[in-house]
Amino acid sequence: MRAPSEAVRPVNDVAAPDDIVRRAQQGDVSAFEILYRTHAAAVFALCRRMAGNDRDARDLVQDVFVRAWERLRTFRGESSLLTWLHRLAVNVFLGDLRSASRHPTDELSDDIAGTTASDRIDNRLDLDAALARLPAGARTVFVLHDIHGYSHQEIAQMTGIAPGTARAQLWRARRALLHALEP
Amino acid sequence: MTRVRHLSEEERHGLAEGSLDDDGTRDAEAHLAVCASCAADVTRLRSLMRRIESAPPPTDDLDSLWPGIRSRIESGKVVLLQPASRTGNRRRGWMAAGLVAAATIVALAALELRQDRASGRGLATTAPASLSLASDSARLYRDEATRLLDEMELRRATLPPATRTAIDDDLRTIDDAIKELEGAIAHDPSNPALRQLLASSYRQKVDLLERIGNAG
User: Which residues of A touch B74 (CB under 8 A)?
Assistant: First the structure.
């Protein structure tokens, strides 16, 4: 049996030395900058696929790291720092959705409707375009599970939904992606 | 005649992603050998998995985001002072003294600015006006804080130990903020927001010292 989390996560999971985390927790901005530069790419990768476009993803990354600074003292090292940051990213993203300040799916739906097959340059663009058409809940679960390797239990903790719901959302997302990506 | 039981959705996804246990995998594989429909569906799901795994992560110029993040972090770091005394009248007196001190220093800054202009030393020739004003304010507050610190040292021995400890804690907090801001400015000397924050921190230090000076 292959555990998805073990197969996928190490790509992005760069451990930060404990002393850097500790310094940042004590208010050292330079140490926090090191944490930002270590993890920004992995946080952006999640944000980009959850948000569906670069502009919202960049806003999201900024919000996530400002929130991380504010809450870093609550990080106890029970998970990796990247997992903690990803959890924050999911919280911020879902919070934004709830407050309706961002509508990534709605905004992108129009863009994608006008996209022809010749516009799809490579696999990533195809995948990202198809992802952007998914409902936010299914997209978030899919990105967390299939791209970032989180378990359903972890996703349930991150999003506040039941593991069974996360599983159903994942299957739904995969089916929708198959439909969108297959010729 | 036995009716064929197709794989459930859970079994198909589990087989495709490799999360079924050994027994489940063996049973499902056995079914695929005799069911073209399920086999085709699992093949499609596996193809999707491979496609996902081979897709490179999205990237962007993330270095350009850091100054904005840092600025937002720094703007939230203004030290909130607690009054050294819980007595309402005294607190109001200290606040009034702080306001007078702040007004005096702003007036000094304005005076120096006018003198600079009169003498032909245009601030804008070397830096944005907001940057220079913030720098000048920080310098004036720092000088004033130094003077008040000297005065406080003379009176320090007459203060109760608990008061001395509280004062030292407050000053240390403010000094830490000042030190961090000076470090940030060293990295980003043209950031007016950082300089304004530095001036604000020095102003708080002056306010605190003024309160102490008026407390006796």
Answer: 29
Q: How many residues make up chain A in this entry?
A: 183
Q: Which tens digit of pLDDT belongs to each residue from B139-184?
A: 777 777 777 777 777 666 777 777 777 778 778 878 877 887 787 7
Q: Do B51 and A127 touch (CB under 8 A)?
A: yes
Domain count, chain A: 1
Which residues, 6 or more positions from B32, have their beta carbon under 8 angstroms from its beta carbon? B7, B15, B38, B39, B42
Which value, in Å, is the radius of gyration of the alpha carbons in chain B? 33
Residue A34 structural domain = 15-181
- Domain-located, residue A39: yes
**Looking at the whole model, is its pTM more than 0.90?**
no
Query: What residues of B are in contact with residue A4 (Cβ under 8 Å)?
Result: 17-19
Residue A1 lies in a domain: no
* Closest to A141 measured CA to CA, from A127, A157, A155: A155
pLDDT tens per residue across span B64-97: 999 999 999 988 764 434 433 333 343 444 444 4
The candidate with the shortest Cα–Cα distance to A83, out of A163, A181, A157, is: A157
